[in-house]
Design brief:
single chain; alpha/beta; binds arginine; globular; 21 helices; Rossmann fold; 5-stranded parallel β-sheet; Gyrase A, domain 2; 4 domains; 14 strands; about 625 residues; 4-stranded antiparallel β-sheet
């Protein structure tokens, strides 16, 4: 998104005859109006606290100020101007808009513009953040809320929910929290894999083993036992027994036709799976995720294929129906088909996603559609090509109206500590329940060891261990660039040092302790700071902390656009490090004067509020004492 402002600029009308590469000659072909337009553009973009998507970017180094504008060189080149002159032209335009809160812009090097906030402006922002009674640190909601669908978690019925689903759940939840905090209308959808040919063999297996599951009256009450075992047993029969295989094929047809017995068995399977994954959601504290599985889109599938055929996009291919898209080939160079109807008439994964796109962005609410502005799909990077193809087919078919975007949010693999496949010692896939329980257990043991002599009640230990353990798993996942693979390590994620949940949670509790002691108030989260004690700077470390905190709105805007939650973790880590530096050099309780003490308390409150807010966006609770 960066540089979009530049792209919006009109190209200069007349091309220079022959560019002298030094670029320092004034070009007569640029009119005064054009120069004015460019500078106006730059000025308009230079707004504080919503600078993303403009030519003003966060400074990459403290020495460059708080923001920087690097556009002058590029502009100057395409306009045939002197870069420093172009920079000062931009500065002239920006100055009146920013002089209330920024120092005189500084032109550096070949034409960089460095922008630096005035200290008194920064302190007033933090005073405002600390005093916000709504508990959102003074952050405004977006003026034009969008409807945003987030498709995440999405496990498959009767199959094990694996670490990939865990990543999707954690990342999707954070993005949902963030976008709804910003004021968007967020719809959290669980696109459960609850349809497909595997149900034929499952239904037939139930017919033999759990006949009561095939009656609509009794199917709800049947205990199907361990679903993963059930799946394995059915699959085994399917693979070796031809008679069973034939029955399974028939079972699918009957299910699709809506026969009572098959529907009853299918419902029993879905209900049993739902109980299983709900346990995981409860452990993770996932709320507001609506189940809208693949079966929801069944009524639209036939239409999609017919529509694609009528538009000449879908064609017959070896008995099946497929869409061929330019640029997609198999390894051997032959065109790669995107199947939308199998030779037996059944539909494919892609067909459902195409139907879902129509329901999510094309159809109006009158027709039962969502008309979302943005749809985010949080899945492993292995599905990138699937989504690429589905999105381009949808666009070609005209399903994606102007003002709607479809975005795949891919993530990498979770690997074992040795960098190989993530599995148990015996090589089986790791059950999520076991994984989460193990993290909580380690956190609990650690906590008990450290509080041995403090008589902490068991239920408090258990509660804090749960927050640390689950928080550690989430934070470890979110703090990585989501596109890279990462190695799962209890030791690293539960470490008290480094960019981890325990470190952040302890930092938060420590700040709360300082505030409790200095303010005499028991519950820090409830403290209102209406007097917004004026901040008096006595030490450079205070200013550094402030510069870190005030970046929050920009960070949120960035994540809202490019969907990388690790920026939030980096921000938290940096802020808490700045806090530690501040606390090393500045005493709060024994401050040199009452003014300085309340100033520092305000800083502590703003820092605590910032950490609490961001941790909550990451789906992690905080505790004030631990
Ligand atoms: N159930 C799929 C899986 O386990 C993920 C579904 C993602 N969402 C979608 N609209 N295709 O891989």
């Amino acid at each position: 998104a960066r540089g979009a402002a530049l792209a919006k600029l009109e190209k200069p009308k007349k091309k220079k005859k022959k560019q002298d590469t030094s670029g320092d000659s004034e070009d007569s072909s640029i009119s005064e109006e054009e120069k004015k337009a460019i500078a106006d553009m730059a000025a308009k973009e230079a707004k504080p606290f919503s600078i993303a998507d403009t030519m003003v970017t966060l400074a990459t180094r403290a020495g460059f100020g708080d923001y920087q504008v690097n556009a002058a060189m590029g502009l100057a080149k395409s306009l045939g101007m002197n870069p420093r002159e172009c920079a000062s032209m931009i500065v002239e335009k920006i100055r009146p808009k920013i002089e209330d809160f920024m120092e005189e812009p500084e032109i550096a090097g070949p034409g960089f513009i460095n922008l630096r906030f005035k200290p008194e402006y920064l302190t007033s922002v933090v005073e405002y953040m600390a005093s916000d009674p709504a508990g959102r640190l003074g952050l405004p909601k977006v003026s034009k809320p969008q409807k945003i669908i987030i498709d995440y978690s999405s496990p498959n019925i009767a199959k094990e929910m694996h670490v990939g689903h865990l990543r999707s759940t954690i990342i999707g939840d954070t993005l949902s929290n963030l976008l709804s905090f910003s004021g968007h209308d967020v719809v959290r959808l669980n696109h459960v894999g609850d349809w497909g040919t595997q149900f034929g063999m499952l239904v037939e297996h139930l017919r033999d083993e759990y006949p009561a599951a095939l009656s609509l009256e009794t199917s709800q009450d049947v205990d199907l036992g361990d679903l993963v075992e059930l799946y394995k047993a059915a699959k085994k029969r399917f693979d070796v027994d031809d008679e069973f295989k034939a029955r399974a094929r028939e079972g699918v047809v009957n299910l699709q036709a809506g026969n009572d017995e098959e529907i009853a068995a299918w419902q029993a399977l879905c209900a049993a799976s739902r109980v299983e994954y709900q346990k995981i959601y409860d452990m993770l504290g996932i709320k507001g995720l609506q189940e809208r599985g693949e079966s929801f889109y069944n009524p639209y599938l036939k239409d999609v294929v017919e529509d694609l055929e009528s538009k000449g996009l879908a064609v017959e291919s070896e008995g099946a129906t497929a869409v061929f898209l330019e640029g997609y080939t198999n390894r051997d160079g032959t065109p790669l088909p995107m199947l939308v109807r199998k030779s037996d008439g059944g539909f494919n994964y892609a067909t459902t996603d195409l139907a879902a796109i129509r329901q999510r962005v094309e159809m109006t609410s009158e027709d039962g559609g969502e008309r979302a502005n943005r749809v985010l799909y949080v899945t492993d990077a292995g599905q990138a090509q699937h989504f690429d193809m589905v999105f381009s087919a949808a666009k070609m078919a005209g399903y994606v109206p102007e003002g709607s975007s479809l975005e795949h949010v891919p993530f990498g693999l979770v690997q074992g500590e040795d960098g190989k496949k993530f599995a148990t010692r015996s090589g089986d896939t790791v059950r999520l329940k076991d994984l989460l329980n193990e993290a909580v257990r380690i956190a609990g043991d650690d906590l008990r060891a450290r509080t041995e002599n403090e008589n902490v009640p068991d239920d408090v230990i258990d509660q804090v261990a749960r927050i640390i353990g689950i928080g550690a798993v989430k934070y470890a996942d979110l703090s990585m660039n989501r596109e890279s693979n990462y190695r799962f390590s209890y030791e690293r994620m539960l470490s008290l040092n480094g960019n981890t949940a325990p470190y952040m949670l302890y930092s938060y509790a420590r700040i709360c302790g300082i505030i409790r002691k200095a303010s005499g108030q028991e519950v820090v989260a409830n403290i209102k700071w209406p007097e917004a004690s004026k901040i008096t700077i006595t030490d450079e470390s205070e200013m550094e902390l402030i510069r870190s905190i005030v970046r929050l709105p920009d960070i949120l805007t960035e994540v809202e656009q490019d969907l990388y939650p690790n920026r939030l973790c980096d921000f938290l880590f940096e802020t808490s490090q700045k806090f530690n530096k501040f606390y090393e050099s500045c005493s709060v309780n024994k401050a040199e004067s009452p003014e300085v003490k309340s100033s520092r308390l305000t800083l502590c409150t703003a820092t605590a509020g910032t950490i609490r807010l961001v941790m909550n966006l990451l789906g992690i609770e905080v505790v004030e004492k631990m």
